[in-house]
Amino acid sequence: MCPLSQVREGASVRIKRFNASEDVIHRLRELGMLEEQRIQLLAHNATVICRVCNVRMGLSPELAEKILVEPVGSNDKIAKRKKTT
Q: For residue 67, how many other CB atoms are within 10 A of its CB?
């Protein structure tokens, strides 16, 4: 598992757990981000943009760091984003 913020653009992942307050977790669930939900990371810019239930959603990098995911697909490996310094 790794944070959503570390996943490379284009990767499909499954949400495994949240490291956030109960209020934030509740709001994410209301928006369709549930444990075991499959999502695709679309872009890393000022916000992290992902596709959830065929809807594009923008998240702050700090919030994306609190969403733990695992790979989906045949290669069973998350393509991690290269860190910029």
A: 26
Distance CA 7, CA 22 (A): 24
In the chain the domains, ranked by start, together with CATH numbers, are 2-71 (2.30.30.90)
| pLDDT (tens digit per residue) in 15-55 | 999 999 999 999 999 999 999 999 999 999 899 999 999 99
Name every residue whose Cβ is closer than 8 Å to that of residue 48 and which is 6 or more positions away in sequence.
Answer: 4, 5, 41, 58, 59, 60, 61, 63, 64
Question: Which residue, 78, 58, 66, is CA-closest to 3?
Answer: 66
